[in-house]
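@channel sequence for tomorrow's demo:
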Amino acid sequence: MKTQEYAASTAGASNTVDAVTVEIIRNGLIAVTEEMKSNLTRTAYNLIIYEALDFTVGLFTTEGDSISIGLGLPMFIRGMSETVKAKIRHFGLENIKPGDILVTNDAYTTGSHLNHFTFTMPVFHEDELIGFTCCMAHWLDVGGTLGQITTDIYSEGIQIPIVKYRKEGVVNQDLVDIIAMNVRLSERAMGDLRAQITAITTGERRYLELVKRYGWPAVRASVVQIMDHSEALARANTLTIPDGVYEAESYMDDDGLEVGKRIPIRVKVIVEGDGMTVDFTDVAKQVRGFYNSGFTTGIACAQVAYKCLTTPTDYPVNDGSFRPLKVIMPMGTVISAERPFPMRVWMTFPMTVIDTIFKALAPAIPDRAIAGHHADLVFPNIHGISPEDGRLFIVGIGPLGGGWGAKSREDGVSATVCINDGDTHNSPSEQLEAKYPVLVESYRLRQDSAGAGRQRGGLGAEMVVQALSPFTVTTRIDRVHCKPWGLDGGHEAAGNGIGIRKDGVWDESHANAKIFNVRLARGDAYKMLSGGGGGFGDPAERDPELVAHDVREGYVSREQAEAAYRVIVGADGHADAEATARLRSAASTPANV
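structure tokens (generated this afternoon):
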């Protein structure tokens, strides 16, 4: 079986530019991609783009290396760059002309699902190609089977190979017509297409303004210095991790077809000096259900974890940060799937892969380690016929947000989107109720969902949505059984979950949280439950007043305060110091033999 090895490109030659100019240009690059984001959200047609922010934009070198990624979905960090490189290989630089726009949604190139259309535009300055702008965004519908689990890529929707959407300024209308005919909500898809074109043309215009202001030699040299600085910072911080071979494993619940059959996730991390290697050789083989992702996502798993550990606040996000990182990965795994394995729910397994990398390194860097998090979008898809206009509607409600793991010195955050999705937002209840026949009955934190510890994990959330007219709901949620783990004696957190209410009766007895095309009548409801974050350290070492505060806030029940934290909370809502001391003393005293 072919093994994919990846290492970022090395530094290029540059002339020295003074530090002040480099800093101005660095902020200018960030401003370019942030304006690309703003114009996309202002012109997009679907909630998933303009509210949830399920997209990423970027600037790239003529080789396809990342210069600046607009903050968005971390998992797109590799997919966009490799897609730009694939387009360069396909056409050749000599065949890419001013006014061209290149497009694809090929899942095995982007590493994700067919919903991610990726548009790329070359940037020319004085007849010289100086880079590319790119936008990868989620289209709500791309055809294919609706609601059911898929077992091959062909049932997941329209596939667009690498082609020119626009050739030297002339739009390929035949391509547009083919796309429009193969999606269910064509007017929305075409609206999002135009929004993406707005984003990349904004990037081209603003990048050229920067080049004209400071000159191409200064901008080019500054980009090289920015990447070199990111590399130096990453190497310096990698040196703070003790050399060694670190391994960890976890698992996914199942692939949606073979219910209950665990899917192993095993990773190995090798640290040698200022370099790190992440070895995915023992990650599970690609599965029949639609939870696979492509090799670029496998690389992104390693890169997201590495950046979190070494250069979390170094901006703009660029490929210099990843030069000290090597990734080893056989093809044909759940994070390096090959055609025709299905990819529709590509985003679920990678976040547990990242979690497991952190788990592997926890013994080496306990001060920077983080316990497991809920690791799922907890994102239902619903579709039905609108009672207002009789037209089909399709909407994904979420992501719900859940608990993140605790660290050695701080509690985990609550009701926060999973690591894959970075800056994405949840769907505002008011927007959902205004646009679709739904009523959000409740949206609240889940009491006792956080893992207990000296530092408590974050809390998960619960959302109950009622059908105001009949619709069909599908969920693809994992990590119900592989619960977010604790570290250094911390407890695991609650896992994700799902409930269905029909005729006033709740059913939460599902073997997993994957349900497909469940029909709800008016007044029925579904309940999404996101997991918490694992705890860090012995819960009996947590300050009793912090536990009492959590009880007063409703985060922790009195029963869990006593059972897990060994804290007695008095009627006044504060810790009973004497009763707590006796309870903790009794718990630490060995029983008589």
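heads up for whoever presents: The longest helix spans residues 186-214.
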